[in-house]
Amino acid sequence: MPEEKQGLRRIRSYVIRTPRASKSHDALIQSAHSEGIYYSLHNYGDREVANLLEYLQSVIFPHPAPWTYAHETPVFSVSAEDNKPLQENKSAYPLFWIDIGFGNGDSLIKFAQQFPHILFLGIEVHELGVRQALSKASRYELDNVLVVRGDVLDLLEAFAGHIRVHAVTALFPDPWPKKRHQKRRLFTEASLSLVAKIMHPGAMFGFASDWQPYSEEVGAFLSSSESFEVLFSPYAPRPFWRAQTKYEKKSIADGRLTRDILATRTDVL
Fold first, then answer.
1. Can you give the pLDDT at residue 3?
2. What's this model's pTM, rounded to 2 decimal places?
3. What is the set of active-site residues?
């Protein structure tokens, strides 16, 4: 794929690390792929995207985002009308949530445990994190988790016009703190515009970072966009559904504060 695409920077926001794999890890990956739980854009490209789209379109019902607000925190509220299609298809999900860059999978797994009626799709580029997430999903027998290894921008471009989601979260993406590396940051005006294209009106975007300049930058992008409405200024209280991760605990111990941003998708694209 070319490094530049019209309207969207294709400078990669990551550097691939390939850890040594054991036979058990290889077997886990192969088993998850054969069961339709794991999809690898790195290995299979467009064919894998087509398989994933076909599956998602068969299990997700395209109704608007069912958010209500309790104690200044967004929560899901699904009406009886929205749940009617589920009576005919017990394997379907009324809600779809994408978690971008899930690291070792802790947050993704905790999301899935809290909300068993939501289908979660976690996207991660690093193989070690993919293995860890799949292992935890298997250990806790979670059937509402899908894992994709690949570049999130490639996947969102493929989803645009085909799939809409009710929530997108990005917790502690790499802030690339050095000035010469900041062009690698995942979230820009262009990439957030792409995120907006796959969201239902009213859907939630949640972002958390321990790097204040990156938080300020993302907050400014969202505030200036007609496609998003930022819910709190300048930062949101930590949502009840966002468990504190090992990374965040270490960050706090090192004296860095976490800043949460919550925004909803407007009717304007």
1. 42
2. 0.85
3. 174
